[in-house]
Each structure stands twice: as structure tokens, then as C-alpha cells.
Design goal:
Largest sheet: 6 strands, mixed
Number of helices: 11
Distance between the termini: 36 Å
Strand content: 15-25%
Oligomer: single chain
């Protein structure tokens, strides 16, 4: 489990199945077996389901946050000041418009604890989203320059509340409260040459964008977005204006594009080594579980993942291989001193006795807030690890999708935080929470060698798939 002391003040065109998105049900997002999909092809996970029906879907109930050792307050509302109309500027462009099933099924988790929780195909004409959206966002992999900060004066005058400005870049931008949002139509048009979208629909607050290769679903007002039944937590809630669905420009550049188009991540570097970090250790026991301590489970999981990576041809470096204490800075130093590497940190969660599920953490982008308050708050100026933002989210997607799609876990989502092992890391890195040790049933799995071997195999496959997904991008460097 990560505590407050742990932070400091892909996809190419080869994805081939349908993406069915729905708001998480009480039992969590469930992957279907035997249906290779978008993530299965490249990132090693993600289920395939039928597109959304033509009729109005029945919205599922909003998930109830799982109990944690430190309660998570409700997520903040979009950054729009109240008491006065938001500044809205429209820029229109030219052109035409699981629980693991080990021998016997495990009992489903309580609904009260659901988390809030390569073979390239034809490419678009433009090389990457950064090439086409220079007026939308600057190079999303360069040094942090504050390009996503809000305007200091967001009070509109009567003449600028809504204005339409021509642009040549092919994007429609809506500025709300000083923050740029991109219309879903613009996203569809840009990625359409790759995915061939046939579904584009808003019913009530539920939005679908889909084809035989991919379906994305989101809900206006929510930060949850599902792609091929894999849950992502956006930095900002989805908005709507004049009947148009809007995604923040930051989420487009720091999540949607690297996940849909990893072959064009601009600073991707070839790697042949996996630095594996077992959380806690020594006097730092971590969370106390029903059948043991987090530090011991993390070490066993790290060693199993290391064996799986070695079996797939990777070199492995462990931050610790025994029950010893290592500072957070020491862990980061090992990663940064290991050339041609990626970084995987392993932890286990704690919470109420019914809390369950898997979650994967990538670093919070600059000018966005962590998914949970204790995750480091708002990242104002950017940190070292933000130079790997696109690779970070692609790696998180690969690992999370591989595990969630292979086992019937509750999907708590791919989230953001400024954990110390991520903020200073100069390599692509993620933090993986492998289950709740405070849940008797889940801790029994965590304590099982079979569980660790099977999850480790899924993670080893994910590392292979991640490197394949970024091969083209790596070759460019």
C-alpha cells in the first residue's frame, strides 16, 4: 500500500476488436474470455463485446468508493468557477467537417466496495497527433513548459463568452474556465483513418465512439473512461457544450493519444532491462494483511515477475531481493542508473474488509491533480518523470489490461499520483497494486504461489507487448 510519505511537495493501428464500455457494475468490470481484442493484440488484454445498442442504455448506478485506510473524499468538480458564466471560446477548424479462478471460482465482491474507481496497419496521413495539433498542444514529450495551465483571468467579457476562430489544424477547441477541451468529433476525425469508426452517439450523458476495432465509452460529468472494457481515470471530467462531447486537451495528449497511437510516442527509447521494485521492506512492513504483511507479498511478487521477464529474454535488476529497507530515493536511483530499462514497482492495497480489486498508477501529468488527494495533489510545475508521460501511460495500459483481461478481478482503473518512486524516475515507470491484503479472500490469493505465478506471467507478457507496441517509435530514435 502507498502511504502519504510516498510522494513529494499504445496504440498502433493493429487493434482488431470491438470495445464495449459501460459504467462499472457492482461486481466490477469483467473481461470476457476467448475474445482477443484491441488490447489483446498489442497490450495483451481487453475484452471484445458487441457495440452499444441503438436504444437508450439503462445507466448503471454510480460506483460507491471502496473504504480505504484513509477515506477518499469525492473528486473535485471541473475547474470552472461558480457564480459567473465560464469563459467559453470555440475554435473551429477548416475542412469538411477478476478474482482469479484457481481451481474453483471465488465469491464475487460486495457491491459496496466497487472502486470509484505488431503488425502496423495503414496509418493516418499525419505522423502523429503532435504534428497536427500544434495549436492544440505543444510537443507532449518535451520539457514541461506549463502549456496546459489555466488562464489567470477566466472571466469572459460579453464579446468573448463564445467566439469562433478559424484554424488550419483540423481540431475544434472549446475553452471552458481557461482550460482547453477538444470535441469528440475532432478525435473521431483524426483517428478515423486508423479505426474506421461507425458508431458515434450521445444518449443522455452516455457517449460511445466505436468501430469493429475499438469502442470508447465515457459519461459526461465523469472522469471514468473505458476502452475495450479497461477503465481509465481521466485528469478532468468529460464536458459537453451545445450538444458536443468534450475531452480535455491534456487528457487527449497525455492519455488518449499515447494509448490509441503508441507507435508515435516521440521520446520512446529501446529497453532490454526491467527494474523491479518490491515495495516496503525491513522495518517498513507496509499494510498488515489477513495472512501476512505487504512487504513480504511484494517481495515474492517481484521475484516472480522477475523470473517471468527473464524467461521472456529481458535482463532484470531488483531494487531489493531480501527483506531489507531501501529508501524511496534509493529505489529511484537504481532505476535511473540502469540504462535501457523500464521500472515496475509492486505493492498491495489495504482498506475495508470488503474492498477489492486491481489498480495501476502512472505519474500525474503537469497541470493536473492526482486521482486521490493523498496522491500528491496538483502537479503545478511538472517533475522529472513527466518527461516520460506518454510511455508511462502506455506501460500502465499494457500491464493493467493484461492482468484485468486474463483474470476476473474488480477493475479499479488506471490512475494518477505523484508517488515518489515515479516523480523522479527518468525511465518509463508504473506502480502496480496487486490486490487488497485486508480482504480475506483476496489476501488468500495474494499469499498463493499459483496466483503470483499466473499474474507474473501476465505481466511478463505485457512487457513484451509494450515493447512491440512501441517498436516503431523506438526505431525512430
Amino acid at each position: 500500500m502507498i502511504t502519504g510519505s510516498h510522494f513529494k511537495p499504445f496504440l498502433t493501428a493493429a487493434f482488431v476488436s470491438v470495445l464495449a464500455l459501460s459504467i462499472a457494475t457492482p461486481g466490477g468490470v469483467r473481461a470476457e474470455d476467448g475474445k482477443p481484442g484491441f488490447f489483446k493484440k498489442i497490450f495483451g488484454g481487453g475484452s471484445s463485446e458487441a457495440p452499444a445498442p441503438a436504444s437508450d442504455p439503462k445507466p448503471a448506478p454510480k460506483p460507491v468508493p471502496a473504504t480505504k485506510s484513509k477515506p477518499e473524499p469525492a473528486k473535485p468538480a471541473p475547474a470552472i468557477e461558480t457564480g459567473r458564466p465560464p469563459r467559453v471560446i470555440i475554435t473551429t477548424t477548416g475542412g469538411s467537417k477478476k478474482k482469479v479462478e484457481l481451481n474453483k471460482p471465488a465469491t464475487s465482491t460486495s457491491s459496496k466496495t466497487t472502486a470509484k474507481k505488431e503488425t502496423p496497419k495503414p496509418q493516418p496521413k499525419t505522423e502523429s497527433i503532435q504534428d497536427v495539433t500544434k495549436s492544440v498542444a505543444k510537443d507532449n514529450e518535451g520539457p514541461m513548459k506549463g502549456e496546459f495551465k489555466e488562464d489567470s483571468d477566466d472571466k469572459p467579457s460579453s464579446s468573448e463568452a463564445v467566439s469562433v476562430l478559424p484554424s488550419k489544424d483540423g481540431w475544434e477547441i472549446v475553452k471552458i474556465g481557461g482550460r482547453d477541451y477538444v470535441t469528440a468529433e475532432s478525435i473521431r476525425n483524426f483517428y478515423n483513418p486508423v479505426y474506421g469508426f461507425t458508431t458515434f452517439r450521445l444518449q443522455g450523458n452516455h457517449f460511445w465512439l466505436g468501430s469493429s476495432k475499438l469502442i470508447l465509452k465515457a459519461q459526461v460529468g465523469s472522469q471514468e473512461m473505458l476502452i475495450n472494457n479497461i477503465k481509465f481515470i481521466l485528469s478532468f471530467p468529460v464536458q459537453s457544450y451545445n450538444g458536443k462531447v468534450l475531452f480535455s486537451r491534456l487528457d487527449l495528449c497525455k492519455l488518449i493519444d499515447p494509448v490509441l497511437y503508441p507507435s508515435h510516442i516521440q521520446n520512446a527509447e529501446y529497453f532490454d532491462t526491467v527494474v523491479i521494485d518490491a515495495g516496503h521492506g525491513g522495518h517498513d512492513a507496509g499494510a498488515r494483511g489477513i495472512y501476512g504483511y505487504e512487504k513480504d507479498f511484494a517481495l515474492k511478487m517481484a521475484m516472480a515477475v522477475g523470473a517471468a521477464c527473464k524467461a521472456r529474454g529481458f535482463k532484470v535488476v531488483y531494487t531489493r531481493s531480501t527483506d531489507t529497507f531501501l529508501t524511496l530515493g534509493g529505489r529511484v536511483a537504481i532505476a535511473n542508473q540502469t540504462p535501457k530499462s523500464i521500472f515496475l514497482s509492486f505493492h498491495f492495497n489495504s482498506g475495508g474488509s470488503a474492498a477489492s480489486g486491481i489498480e495501476t498508477w502512472a505519474l500525474t501529468p503537469q497541470s493536473a491533480a492526482a486521482t486521490i488527494p493523498r496522491g500528491g495533489g496538483y502537479n503545478v510545475n511538472g517533475v522529472t518523470g513527466n518527461k516520460q508521460d506518454s510511455a508511462n501511460i502506455a506501460l500502465a495500459t499494457a500491464v493493467h489490461a493484461s492482468v484485468i483481461s486474463r483474470f476476473k478481478f474488480v477493475d479499479r482503473g488506471i490512475k494518477r499520483a505523484q508517488w515518489s518512486v515515479l516523480t523522479g524516475c527518468k525511465r518509463p515507470g508504473i506502480l502496480f497494486e496487486g490486490g487488497f491484503v485486508t480482504n480475506a479472500q483476496e489476501c488468500l490469493l495474494v499469499a498463493s504461489d499459483t496466483y503470483r505465478q499466473q499474474v507474473s506471467a501476465a505481466i511478463g507478457d505485457a512487457v513484451v507487448n509494450y515493447r512491440k507496441a512501441l517498436e516503431t517509435a523506438m526505431a525512430k530514435r
